[in-house]
Amino acid sequence: MRKKSIFFLLLLSWTVSASPKNYGSLGSEVDFLDFGRVIAAPFSYSVSSSFHEEYGAFNLFDSDQKTYWYSSADLKPEWIIVDFGAKRLINAVEVVVPIFRGKRAAEEYEIQILYQENWKTIFKNSKVELVNLHTLPPIDASIIRLYFPKKEDRSIVIGEFKVLLNGAALNSIPARFTGYQYPVPGGLIPDKDIQLPGAPREYRNGIHKGLDIYYKREKIGPPRRLVFDDSLVSPADGTIIRADLDYSPMTLSEFQKYSALAQKNGVTFVEKDFGGRQVWIDHGNGVMSSFNHLSSIKSGIKVGAKVKSGEEIGKVGNSGLSGEAKGNDENIHLHFELWVDGEYLGAGIAPSQMRKLLQFFFSKSDLRWPGVPTN
User: Fold this and answer.
1) In terms of Cα–Cα distance, which of 103, 123, 31, 45 is closest to 79?
2) Which site in 10, 68, 107, 333 is 20 to 30 Å from 156, CA atoms measured?
3) Domains 30-173 and 193-361 in one fold
């Protein structure tokens, strides 16, 4: 998502009296985010307009002041609505307003709550700065609106809109969940739910805890399947905590033996791990990444080594899988896991929401693509 937008589908209109039954994806004017424990509360949002999908309202909630929502340039009021769908305690709001075309991108705005089907203004700001933190009288509300009167036909541009309780953002993806690079340069988010974290499995106690990446796009031509020569890169700065430099492949008989055991007992075994040749990276702040099925590990990648964001760590492969045991190129892909505070990223998150979260997480990569091939 290169800090902008992904998978633009539809521009849906919002009405106060009834929420839309269908939500668009990131880049739409209306959407719903439910990222489990990643965010304080699920919420829907809508905006009066968007100048372009690349500058959609999702940029308001990514903890990055330098990604923006742009309204249309019409001479009409603009607004941002956040709807939690249930009562929330609120005592502050933060609004980030950059300079746009030589002047502050919003000269004034009002903070409003929905009161008996009417919008009630509880605060006005006519002295707008870059970062505007407003302490509010403690309120309980489910819907809050930022309303922008307009005096000229120019876009309103906003970097962040945070609804707060005691300093904690209720509607923002924390910074540690954004700003990463996709581990496969040019790689695609899979369209099959079975390839996402949280998908059911006949082993690993019934849960798939990673992302299976099979395809990438080239500068010219359609997407293609990954091959042994495709490089893998570190999603962020970090320290290598595992590198299987002495990895030895399973024979076909060993693979069949451990596959039968795994399906019978519902778990995999450390002695012969289906993850194959692996590299793990500690990125700090409770975030760790795990690369599985590598065909090779780049020279210099070893336990204790420091890596930079985007630095190559190895090549994609099928190690630990039947294709390696058979000596062919069957099932080449990257199984990639993210762990945060000891839990895999994706636990309890629906597939449609997981795809959106991944696009926030890998915001330094352009994951936009109109379609993803199926295996």
Assistant:
1) 45
2) 10
3) no
- For residue 123, the cross-strand partners are 111
Count helices and strands in the chain by DSSP H and E runs:
3, 24
309 token code pair: 């964001």
Q: Tell me how far CA of residue 59 lies from CA of 33, 69, 70, 138, 312, in angstroms.
A: 13, 6, 10, 27, 29
Which of 179, 180, 172, 146 is CA-nearest to residue 61?
172
Rounded distance between C-alpha atoms, residue 249 and residue 326, angstroms:
10
CATH says 193-361 is which class?
mainly beta
Three-state DSSP class for residue 64: coil
CA distance 314 to 24: 36
Going by the DSSP 8-state scheme, the letter that residue 31 receives in this structure is E
- For the residues 332-341, what does the mean pLDDT come to? 97
pLDDT of residue 321: 93
Provide the pLDDT for residue 270: 57
Contact 219, 185 (CB under 8 A): no
Which residues in 178-226 belong to E strands, given as ranges? 211-213, 215-216, 224-225
Q: pLDDT for 293-303, tens place per residue?
A: 999 999 999 99
Which tens digit of pLDDT belongs to each residue from 150-169? 888 999 999 999 999 999 99
Residue 54 clears pLDDT 90, i.e. is over it: no
- Residue the block writes with tokens 């009021």: 77
**What pLDDT score was predicted for residue 271?**
62
For the stretch 8-27, pLDDT in tens is 322 333 333 333 323 345 56
The CATH fold of domain 30-173: Jelly Rolls (2.60.120)
d(CA 313, CA 306): 11
Boundaries of every domain in the chain: 30-173, 193-361
Q: How confident is the model at residue 4 (pLDDT cuts 50, 70, 90)?
A: very low
The set of residues, in sequence order, having a beta carbon less than 8 Å from that of 227 and lying 6+ positions away, is 316, 329, 332
User: Own/partner pairs for 190-197, CB < 8 Å, 24+ apart?
Assistant: 190/214, 190/215, 190/372, 191/371, 191/372, 191/373, 191/374, 192/374, 192/375, 193/351, 196/346, 196/351, 196/354, 196/355, 197/337, 197/338, 197/344, 197/345, 197/346, 197/347, 197/349, 197/354
